[in-house]
Amino acid sequence: MEGLEIENVSISILINSDKKGERYFTTIELYDEDACIQFLEIKLTNDQFMSALSRLVHVPVKKCTVNGLNLVGKKRLQKELVFEVKQKLPYGRKERNAILFKLAKEAADPGWEVRDYFNSQSSVTRHNDIVMGRTIQFKYIDKEETIDTENIK
After folding, report:
1. Nearest to 45 by CA among 66, 59, 30, 61
2. CB 16: neighbour CB atoms within 10 A?
3. DSSP E strands: which ranges in 18-115?
4. The dihedral sign for the CA sequence 102, 107, 113, 114
5. Would you give the DSSP letter of residue 109?
6. Which burial class, exposed, middle or buried, applies to 106 when counting CB atoms under 10 A from its CB (0-12, 13-18, 19+)?
7. Which pTM value belongs to this model?
8. Between 1 and 88, whose confidence is greater?
9. Cα–Cα nearest to 149, from 83, 78, 89
10. d(CA 106, CA 115)
11. What's the rounded Cα separation, in Å, for the pair 82 and 136?
């Protein structure tokens, strides 16, 4: 794989964050703003972080996680998806969300993926006795690709 130059990237360096009972470590995160994805997370102990800051090369890391490399350098398009819910929804959140996700995938435009979050107030609404579901549909395109921007954020 050749080197990929990405222009719109942000970095976070979180020093001495306390996650999952672990203490005293540093997390470095890289985020592709156009693809809306955090593609690299590096965790360092304080000793490793200080070694890197003192210009010691090839410092081993505590943990490194790489995500979504196939999406880095692309652009994420998204738009609202509103769909009719013709069946009665159960009260259990897990079961309800599974049904809504299935219906949303069926209603999505071809080639688009559907966000699986349905826990906000506006995820399910009722208007004139018609129950409607609402979420976001999205897809990734090459940055050079021309698009019809109607109804796309």
Report:
1. 61
2. 11
3. 25-32, 37-45, 63-66, 74-84, 113-114
4. negative
5. P
6. exposed
7. 0.69
8. 88
9. 78
10. 13
11. 8
Show the tokens assigned to 135: 């979420």
Instruction: Report helix, strand or coil for 11.
Output: strand
Q: What are phi and psi of 23, to 5 degrees?
A: -125, 155
Length in residues, the chain: 153
What is the token pair recorded at 125? 């609404």
Both tokens assigned to 61:
């890391």
Determine the Cα–Cα distance for residues 105 and 65; give it in Å rounded to an integer: 29
Q: Helix H segments across 40-115? A: 46-53, 93-107
Rg over alpha carbons for the chain, rounded to the nearest Å, is 21
Q: Tens digits of per-residue pLDDT, 8-42?
A: 899 999 887 566 665 668 889 999 998 889 999 99
Which one-letter amino acid corresponds to residue 121?
Q
- At 150, list the tokens: 């109607």
Residue 81 φ/ψ, nearest 5 degrees: -120, 120
Residue pair 131/56 in contact (Cβ under 8 Å)? The answer is: no
Given a contact cutoff of 8 angstroms between Cβ atoms, the answer to whether 37 and 75 are in contact is no
